[in-house]
């Protein structure tokens, strides 16, 4: 009996060690980001505000110096990026509009700046008009072609986007590298997209350009996460924070790793609760609602969704959250008709596979699976590698008994569970 007892104890100990080792395999997030979470000062925000105060005083003394308006607008844009407060984005637009009107739309740099502002506002058609204005003037063609590529990608005009990308070809140019990386991501070639972003990062590091390093590090964090390289993703977010301790985007990325990969909803919520105080945007409520859904906490999920919609009612975000609203409205039959309306607006704004997916998903949720299938097969299938869209596509196939079409999509979706999150992971498995 003693011998059997000893064997049992040894087996139990071995099982415990193996269980712990298995569990530790999924631990990526450490405490090394904690200091960044509680940074008290915000140098980028304070610097931008100081620049605004300086140039505003200069402009007040000499209102004829219209060039000051662009400098003010640039710093208001930086405040928007740093705080998430959309009033700064609108203020930048107001200043750039005034500048362009004064110049009678003859300065290509100012025209392009307003175009980029409109992209941030999801006013893509207006951004395209401005890009074409700059193109017609002819000055600074390469910079205008970069803007055109960005707008055309947003509008789903991939043919012309590719033409403008080919006109930029320069393997040593940072702006070209990040755009050709985006193009390869669009084509579903994630490995090449990462490789090109790494080359862009090499350029940023070689030139010791802080803002470009922040940009590439954070994007490499995203891309590696999408490719399943969670440790590399985490390391790049830490590199982002080393350059910019106030970078809430990187901290949000770490929160997603804690939630989606480690299933540590407590830590994910802790991160979000801290960073949402200094970068107050509606999407944080959506993330908290996702976490609450995973925890089967219906009360917290409803509270966070209510806070999300309340913020949208309090602050005018224009079309910036249309996609999220459509997906949320579609989940409830009583509001699914609203989702359909938004989807139609989005198609008018930007006829991309993403927008058509919203339309198909809305019809599916309204009970019209056949119409959903027709839209998906014409405008979504084979036209996007986005996992969320392909999850919708597989679900619509299932509703139409097209079982043979589901298997290859499901295989790819199972590789994207980190990107999609734990809630969709369960649904994918049941496809």
UniProtKB/TrEMBL annotation:
Its signal peptide is: 1-19
Coiled coil location: none
Q: Report the InterPro entries cross-referenced here.
A: TPR-like_helical_dom_sf, TPR_rpt
Looking up SUPFAM superfamilies in the UniProt record yields:
TPR-like
Q: Which residues cross the membrane?
A: none
Q: Does the keyword Oxidoreductase apply?
A: no
Q: Which domain of life is it from?
A: Bacteria
Pinpoint the residue ranges of every TPR repeat in the record.
214-247
Asked if the Swiss-Prot or TrEMBL record annotates the protein with the keyword Translocase, the reply is no
Cite the PROSITE patterns for this sequence. Answer: PROKAR_LIPOPROTEIN, TPR
Looking up Gene3D superfamilies in the UniProt record yields: Tetratricopeptide repeat domain
Protein name per its UniProtKB record: Tetratricopeptide repeat protein
Say which species the protein is native to: Flavobacterium cellulosilyticum
């Amino acid at each position: 009996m003693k011998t059997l007892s000893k064997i049992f104890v040894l087996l139990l100990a071995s099982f415990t060690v193996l269980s712990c080792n298995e569990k530790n395999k999924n631990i990526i997030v450490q405490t090394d980001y904690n200091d960044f979470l509680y940074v008290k000062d915000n140098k980028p925000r304070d610097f931008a505000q100081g620049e605004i105060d300086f140039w505003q005083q200069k402009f007040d003394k000499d209102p004829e110096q219209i060039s000051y308006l662009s400098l003010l607008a640039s710093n208001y844009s930086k405040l928007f990026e740093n705080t998430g407060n959309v009033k700064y984005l609108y203020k930048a637009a107001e200043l750039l509009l005034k500048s362009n009107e004064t110049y009678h739309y003859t300065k290509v740099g100012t025209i392009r700046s307003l175009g980029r502002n409109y992209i941030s506002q999801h006013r893509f058609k207006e951004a395209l008009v401005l890009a074409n204005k700059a193109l017609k003037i002819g000055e600074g063609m390469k910079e205008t072609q970069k803007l055109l590529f960005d707008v055309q990608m947003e509008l789903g005009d991939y043919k012309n986007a590719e033409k403008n990308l080919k006109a930029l070809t320069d393997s040593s140019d940072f702006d070209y590298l990040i755009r050709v990386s985006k193009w390869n991501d669009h084509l579903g070639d994630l490995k090449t997209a990462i490789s090109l972003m790494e080359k862009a990062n090499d350029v940023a590091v070689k030139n010791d350009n802080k803002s470009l390093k922040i940009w590439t590090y954070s994007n490499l964090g995203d891309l590696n996460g999408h490719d399943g390289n969670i440790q590399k993703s985490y390391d790049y977010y830490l590199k982002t924070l080393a350059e910019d301790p106030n970078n809430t985007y990187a901290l949000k990325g770490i929160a997603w790793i804690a939630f989606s990969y480690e299933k540590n909803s407590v830590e994910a919520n802790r991160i979000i609760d801290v960073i949402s105080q200094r970068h107050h945007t509606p999407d944080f409520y959506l993330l908290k609602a996702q976490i609450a859904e995973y925890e089967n906490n219906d009360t917290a999920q409803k509270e966070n969704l209510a806070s999300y919609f309340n913020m949208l009612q309090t602050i005018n975000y224009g079309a910036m959250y249309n996609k999220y609203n459509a997906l949320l409205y579609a989940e409830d039959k009583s509001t699914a008709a609203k989702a359909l309306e938004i989807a139609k607006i989005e198609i008018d704004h930007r006829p991309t596979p993403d927008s058509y997916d919203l339309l198909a998903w809305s019809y599916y949720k309204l009970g019209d699976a056949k119409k959903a299938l027709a839209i998906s097969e014409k405008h979504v299938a084979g036209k996007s590698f986005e996992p969320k869209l392909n999850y919708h596509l597989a679900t619509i196939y299932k509703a139409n008994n097209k079982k043979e079409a589901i298997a290859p999509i499901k295989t790819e979706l199972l590789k994207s569970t980190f990107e999609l999150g734990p809630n969709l992971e369960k649904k994918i498995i049941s496809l």
